[in-house]
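Appendix B: complex inputs.
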Amino acid sequence: MNYAAIRRNKIKTFFSKPHNVILLLMGIVLTFSTVAPIVAIVQDTFKIHPGTIDQHLTGMASGYTFANYVDLFTSRLARTNLWTPLWNTVLLAVGTCVVSILYGGVFAFLVTRTDMAWRKYLSSIFIFPYIMPQWTLAVVWQHLFNSNAVTGTSNGLLAATLGVTMPKWWCQGMFPSLMVLGLHYAPFAYILIGGIFRNMDANLEEAATILDTPRWRTMCKITLPMVKPAILSTILLVFGSSMGSYPVPHYLGLTTLSTKYVSMNSKYTGEASILAIIMMVFGVAIMLMNQLSLTSRKSYTTVTGKSGQISKIRLGKAGRYVIALILVFLTFFTSIFPIISFAFETFLPNPGDYSFLYTGNTANLTTKWWVTSENVTENGMYGQKGMLYNATIWRAFGGTMLVSVCCALIAGTIGTLIGYAVSKQRRSKWANYVNSVAFLPYLMPSIAVGVAFFILFSNEHFNLFNTYWLLIIVGTIKYIPFASRSALNSMLQLSGEIEEAAIIQDVPWIKRMTRIIIPIQKSSIISGYLLPFMTCLRELSLFMLLCTQGFILATTLDYFDEMGLYAFSSGINLILIVTILVCNALVNKITGASLDKGIGG
Amino acid sequence: MKKFLSLILALTMLFVLAIPAFADGGESVQDIIAQAEGMTLEELAQKAIEESNGATFYGVGNSSRGATALPLFIDYLKTIDPDYSMEFDWQQPKNNKIFDQLTADSLKDTGTFAMTLIQDGNQIESKMVQTGVLDTFIPKDWADANGVTADEYEGYLPLQTLNKVFMFNNTGDKTYDNVWDFVAEGEHGLFMDIDSEIVGKNFLYMLTEDTNAANLKAAFDALPAEEQAYFQPTIDELATDAEDLGLGENGAYALAWIKLWVESYNAQTDDGPICNTLVDQSATDQFGLLVYSKLRSVEESDSVSKNNITVAAYQDGYTGFGGYGYCHYLFVTDNSPLPWTACAFIAYMTCTTDGFSAWGKDIGGYSSNPTVAADNEEIFHHQTGGMAEDGTTVEFAALNDAGYDWWTTNGQLVLEDPEYCASVSFTVGSWIEMLTKYSAG
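Resulting structure:
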């Protein structure tokens, strides 16, 4: 027997299948792109950094040491620098999951399983908080609830107009942070849980009704177990994201691992890198736990057999309007009010100066933030031109569009290919590995991923800081899971016979993809492009350590928010929201896909 | 033939690699700085034109105004050579990233950044100067104006000193006439978090320096007995810590003030929001420690006014320091790709009023060149900036900037000393980190 020929033939056969080539290539590339930054950051924890604590403790200006670990875990500052931020981070992540699942889940139930009024409007408006940069809700929260009496600042809208002052715990710290993040991520829960509610077999519930089972028991024993996978998926997506959120706790005065990383980085550089690793460990742990608990579940948005009969619960003539009204009221504050507030802010003479509201004097309004064409320091412009003439803002907008479009195209394409290849080799360990390694960056807190890539690409060979290359690389790796999961879920719904028929007809792979597979599942696949695009547009935690403040819109927006120039940050927010809505509408018009239907595939 | 081609290729590569090393005749940046320190601005400009015509100049700084100053510099060079052109890119990193960025860039043979405008003397000393990442260049004209020579002068080259001063909202009855009033029971001053802006931490370090600690003791002595009684236990309690930290005889007063301040200040993200808060009539009896220049940008409205603010140190009878000062320093990077141009640009900013004009409009920022500072005052009249057009009526008292000399004498501005900050960073610094910061939440 000619074993060499057999081996050659096997290899040839293996490589003749495009999904094998994709899996091999992606496995190698993704292993490097995921492991290399982790190695770089681990190395940084042992490295001696001049002018920081490790140099002070070791007396050496270079080399490697365990001093950072010893100091972080055992010094008198361990509680301040590690344990308290860690505890706050875990609480914040858990709290955010609870709020988003409760709010998003109940909303999903009401929209999909009841005859509540105005469901279409509510469904569209509900995803707005996810469109907006997460910290802008934190800033709105401050503008609403701060007061001289409680927070020691000027009065917010509530105190200024109605004289209402909210307690401290409401204004700053854990509660507002988890509320803001919970509201921001509730659309995840809504879309994931709603997806199941929309497709679940109502026969089971009806059988329980026929057997005279109490409604609460039906809910506990039938409905909730069916949405359990979606709840776990929400936890999977939200836990890591909220853990790595920097801006929300930063603005609302909560110390977490993210905020501690930033504050420790100057003097405790190596110890700060350990904090980033701890955040990453949580990401890996969540993924392992998810795989353990759902070993049989291959997709994270479980859509079990579709029923032809979806019964809707009747809320009663008045009830359907009353509940809808309550939701309209709630979504007004989470979705509409911030936009009105942003627009109003751009016409105030000074940031947070609500004189117009209680005097009615139009002299207390201005258009200077938009139309000032000269570079002036006087009149509150801080040397900036108005937004219509502000080159920094528009250059940042261009940069953001470039990064978002590139990330969406690359992540969307790679993710779709991974989804396709994995669906073809579901039982292969390598395919499962590629699937997991592609998803891992999403579970790692954004700030930790940013730190790792900063360290990886800041050396004598590569210095990509403040380049679009770096942002595109990092954004692509972080957002591949959006597309890969979306594509995988949709590909799994596709019978293999369809492609096999084309193979028999000797249709080339490219043609099979572009003429058969992609057109059939275009809605999910487009979601895989749209989500990275939208997320990238307002991403801060991931990019904040990788570029300067005027480089992209999110860092520019954060810069203006920190500076207290709320008119500029509000204006940028409006630009972002309009951009996302226009893009969403365009894609919806052309392809029929849309965000509120597409998250998670 | 193959061998011949390989040889040619190898020689070509060697030649290409060798070009940068010999481009300036093998001169290091430090050699160039040594020569540049003996040249006038005009001579430097000539060198810059030769070096950077058609090139791109990369600068990095804590102040965005570097981007305003660079086009003016290019215009200046064009007055000498109308055909001169230079592109530029000015970056302003956040979150202390400027140090990481400069460190990463220093690893290359030839860096990207030609120069930097940077703050935080402590980190500059320990991370940039001691490690040889940055080099100081002292322009001849600047040295002449300050009555020194480049060789004699010790320290870094400051572009300007900026001050952060105590201000309070005066719509209520409360007054603050002693620096200890800011740390009295129940007070929560608005201040940028010391972990966000490290110069704030340097200010606290500087309080433990003998002169400043003595000033704090003097201010304490001026307090009425009942107010002293509130602070005395804290001062007594910290006497041992002061001794352990190797501080001078009044060290305990400094530590007490620092402790009370850290445990009481209401951390904010930036001076902008602090200013926005204080000028609003609803911020009755609130106070803050913030950059003086922020006041200039406030627009009058029904509830917001610059007259809602009192600068604490301007009050008659005020005792103690009125704020603190820190510098924007200028450096040439040790692997600067355009060292002559960097030196010329630095000389332009520090030796001409036009070069300083990007910062000159602001109150609370003082050129380190006395000639430029005087010319700037002639142009912008900051000392009478709060007067009405008639020149006699006080329109906005807080805007009448008393000037650098007043602030550093009568105003007792606590000035940053990079070497002192670096020396206590892990003694006093670690002690400060042990304190429990105030949290409004």
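Chain B is about 45% helix and 15% strand.
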